[in-house]
Amino acid sequence: xxxAQLYTDLTAQLVSGTDLPWWQDFFxxxxxxxxxxxxxxxYLKGVLTTLRVTALALIMGIVLGxxxxxxxxxxxxxxxxxRNPILGILNLxxxxxxxxxxxxxxxxxxxxxxxxxxxxxxxxxIIGTIALGINSxxxxxxxxxxxxxxLDPGQAEAGRSLGLNYAQTMRFIVIPQAxxxxxxxxxxxxxxxxxxxxLITVIGGKELLYAAQAVGAKTYSVIFPYLGAAVIxxxxxxxxxxxxxxxxxxxxxxDRR
Length: 257
Fold this sequence. Notes:
The chain is an all-alpha fold. About 80% of the residues lie in helices and about 0% in strands. The protein contains ten helices and no strands. The protein has helices at about 5-15, 20-35, 40-75, 85-105, 105-115, 125-150, 155-160, 165-195, 210-220, 225-255. Helix 3 runs parallel beside helix 6 and helix 4 (about 85-105) crosses helix 6 (about 125-150). It starts with a helix and ends with a helix.
């Protein structure tokens, strides 16, 4: 018997008031939540949107994080009596940015972006992506700054002695070494960012959790859609964690050569 026909027969029995065995009831709810009407495509679209939002927010977060980290590191490494006033102003702006973003809940930032700053826009997924990118940038900046400040100052001085300017020293000497040190923390931030994409649902963004809610609204049951979304998140996080571990092992092997 085909699965669709079995589902139809069991559904008819439920409508007539017949009590089904637990495994048949499980099959009906599972089929209704993931198969009936091609509802699996909603989850697939949600996963693709989630991955796209994560990638865009991560790129935005890394760009902001690197910029903020370099400004703050350059300010902190200035010699006494030779302070640059412009750098001081930029450093103050960066400190306010990281303090405000890290000191307020992500969901509040999301609501402010969707309901106040971009209140006239209806592209809630893009708004959510921007909010996630801005939030991630504050945390990435502190991760990168910590990695830069943890290196021996002699590395930068060696670059200067070779005739490299500040930008060249950071590009060819400091940042490549700092990257290996901060990779685990950056990987964890990426995973947290991936899970935080579920928050864009609160402003109407259409991702995986939104798909689960849409299915729940159609089937009048949210148990299977929500559990399904949780399982999908878990599987994807496990894959990302595995990829992160593989990259870290490859970098460690390259250090031994």
